[in-house]
């Protein structure tokens, strides 16, 4: 079994910064991509940023230039540095990890952490 534990969410004023942290633990040989998704009330979950095991990143257009994703493969952790936060960034942020299981990759999710940006 694999568990993802997130931390770092909270309440911040517009223009402020937060850093999200996610650690994967359990039966893990290797992890392919890791990423962060978010879901605002009444909206679908959307990809915010992802990073491969080799360090290639993909960011949503709405966060480019403001958010940075990074990971530590040795520790099975992924980080999301969020700067210049806007009220529209308010959402529950979920960590995702694609854990290699033989020939397959199985997606695991964290429980979510609330990010609230006040105007």
Summarize the structure.
By secondary structure, the protein is mainly β. It has no helices and eleven strands.
Structure description:
- This protein is mostly beta strands and 119 residues long.
- The protein has no helices and eleven strands.
- The strands form two sheets. Strands 2, 4, 5, 6, 9, 10 and 11 form a seven-stranded mixed sheet that branches. Strands 1-3-8-7 form a four-stranded antiparallel sheet, with no helix packed on it.
Question: What's the mean pLDDT score?
Answer: 96
Major beta-sheet overview: 7 strands, mixed
Helix content: under 10%
Oligomer: single chain
Label the structural class: mainly beta
What's the number of helices?
0
Distance between the termini: 40 Å
What is the radius of gyration computed over CA atoms, rounded to a whole number of angstroms? 14 Å
- For the secondary structure, the number of strands is 11
Feature tags:
119 residues; seven-stranded mixed beta sheet; mainly beta; 11 strands; four-stranded antiparallel beta sheet
What's the helix and strand layout?
Layout: E1 2-7, E2 10-13, E3 18-26, E4 31-39, E5 46-51, E6 57-59, E7 67-72, E8 77-82, E9 91-101, E10 104-109, E11 113-118
Parallel strand pairs: 2-11
Antiparallel strand pairs: 1-3, 3-8, 4-5, 4-9, 5-6, 7-8, 9-10, 9-11
């Amino acid at each position: 079994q694999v568990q993802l534990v997130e931390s770092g969410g909270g309440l911040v004023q517009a223009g402020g910064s937060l850093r999200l942290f996610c650690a994967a633990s359990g039966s893990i040989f290797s992890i392919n991509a890791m990423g962060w998704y978010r879901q605002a009330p009444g909206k679908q979950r959307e990809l915010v940023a992802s990073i491969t095991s080799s360090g290639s990143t993909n960011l949503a257009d709405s966060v480019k230039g403001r958010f940075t994703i990074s990971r530590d493969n040795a520790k099975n952790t992924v980080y999301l540095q969020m700067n210049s936060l806007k009220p529209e960034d308010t959402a529950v942020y979920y960590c995702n990890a694609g854990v290699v299981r033989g020939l397959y990759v199985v997606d695991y999710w964290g429980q979510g952490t609330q990010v609230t940006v006040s105007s």
